[in-house]
Amino acid sequence: GESVGLHLPTLSVQEGDNSIINCAYSNSASDYFIWYKQESGKGPQFIIDIRSNMDKRQGQRVTVLLNKTVKHLSLQIAATQPGDSAVYFCAENIKSGGGADGLTFGKGTHLIIQP
Amino acid sequence: DADVTQTPRNRITKTGKRIMLECSQTKGHDRMYWYRQDPGLGLRLIYYSFDVKDINKGEISDGYSVSRQAQAKFSLSLESAIPNQTALYFCATSDPRGRTDTQYFGPGTRLTVL
Fold it and tell me: A82's torsion region: left (phi>0), alpha (psi -120 to 50) or beta?
């Protein structure tokens, strides 16, 4: 089954508000996490990543928080804009033998921006 | 990402037909991956390759095969397509020498098996 999942399939926010998208993972061996954004008709696009030795990482208008105690990951988008409308996926990577296998993805959250 | 291209972008085929999906990249990455995406299931790994001599099965490899013809090319084949292989297929690449294991995705191929 899925080792990475999202709490809400759809999130609707007002333009200008902050968005928080959540993700739970079950494999404590995971040491690298990525958030992807997928717009309609396109492939997933990298947003931000975080390694397990960090609790927080900030990018441009986005912040990822990692709580290893409860195996929870979140993506915060500040001042949400219409262009932020997309499906957001969290993904985890488990290092094995020093290599990197394919990512394990959550099911995705559809972020809808209300005008 | 224009650095990772997939052909065809859309394909409709019939049950039992052999289908090949192609992926090319100009990123110079050694690692390439094939995923399928189904509604409500996210992306699932089919096969991955760390270099031209390395092929590994992913989570859902049954019914699929791959060929790594060169560093830049990674093809996915359905030997005898069946309707439940109708899905969106994505190729991705990554560079193990980079700071991260970030994977870069192509635009996808929408495959319909009738």
Answer: alpha
Residue B48: which of A42, A102, A105 has the nearest Cβ? A102
Instruction: Say if residue A68 is exposed, middle or buried (CB neighbours under 10 Å; 0-12, 13-18, 19+).
Output: middle
The CA distance from B111 to the nearest CA of chain A, in Å, is 13
pLDDT digits (tens, 9 = 90+) for B12-35: 999 999 999 999 999 999 999 999
Rounded Cα distance, A75 and B105, in Å: 20
Interface of A with B in 45-74 (CB under 8 A): 45-46, 49
Mean pLDDT per block of 10 residues along chain B (114 residues) reads 88 97 95 90 89 90 95 96 96 79 90 97
List the one residue out of B36, B54, B19 whose CA is nearest residue B91: B36
